[in-house]
Design a protein that fits this description.
It is a single chain. It contains seven helices and eleven strands. The protein has about 200 residues and is an alpha/beta fold. The protein has a single domain, classed as Spore Coat Polysaccharide Biosynthesis Protein SpsA, Chain A. The strands form three sheets. The chain has a seven-stranded mixed beta sheet with strand order 7-6-1-8-10-9-11, with helices on both faces. Strands 2-3 form a two-stranded antiparallel sheet. Strands 4-5 form a two-stranded antiparallel sheet. It is globular.
Length: about 200
């Protein structure tokens, strides 16, 4: 995969939204929805003249409206039939849907819409086939992450029930951290309070 300069994206969005109490992907975010905001920001980035593509959104089977919204934004939609198996399964399904060679893979959970466009560009410009590029704000790591092509096969081998952090812990030498002045990388919309606070700060 390392022979290409392309960057693809996987947007895991198959969670149950239990703590939120309603479906997160459809929640309003400024003039759009959370999911559409993430997809629009991805669409707005071009590295060396290349757009991020393909963009794969992984959803639960019951999220037909979100699937329609994603397709209208030009994304491929993959259904995760076992959403309770954790986000890593959605990531794996998304990776499996990418057939062409890429230099790196952008992993952006859909419930992190507050990331600035400039942060996203900085992340993608740092792509290296052998590195996992992680964003950091005031010493704390956030989302999204950029996984070099040489590391993508290792994601498939992560044990069930564990997440990408397993890869960072097992191979710390692959991690490249970028400090950014963007608190949006830490904004995780898990609860109604999280959502209301983040929405106020974004407006």
């Amino acid at each position: 995969m390392s022979g290409s300069h392309a960057i693809a994206a996987v947007v895991p969005a198959a969670g149950r939204s239990r703590r939120m109490g309603r479906e997160k992907t459809a929640l309003p975010w400024n003039d759009s929805t959370i999911l559409e905001t993430v997809l629009d920001k991805i669409a707005g980035v071009a590295i060396a003249g290349q757009a991020i593509a393909p963009v794969v959104v992984v959803l639960r089977p019951d999220l037909s409206d979100a699937a329609d919204r994603a397709r209208r934004r030009g994304a491929r939609v993959v259904v995760n039939p076992r959403p309770d198996d954790g986000m890593i399964e959605s990531v794996r399904l998304g990776i499996a849907a990418i057939s062409q060679p890429v230099q790196a893979l952008l992993l952006w959970p859909a419930d992190h819409p507050a990331v600035a466009a400039a942060t996203l560009r900085s992340l993608c410009c740092a792509a290296e086939p052998s590195k996992a590029v992680l964003l950091r704000y005031q010493g704390r790591r956030g989302h999204p992450a950029l996984i070099g092509a040489e590391l993508i096969p290792a994601i498939v081998e992560i044990p069930p029930g564990q997440g990408l952090r397993q890869l960072w812990r097992a191979r710390p030498e692959i991690v490249l951290e970028i400090d950014v002045d963007d608190p949006g990388i830490l904004v995780d919309l898990d609860t109604p309070a999280d959502y209301e606070t983040a929405l106020e700060r974004s407006s």
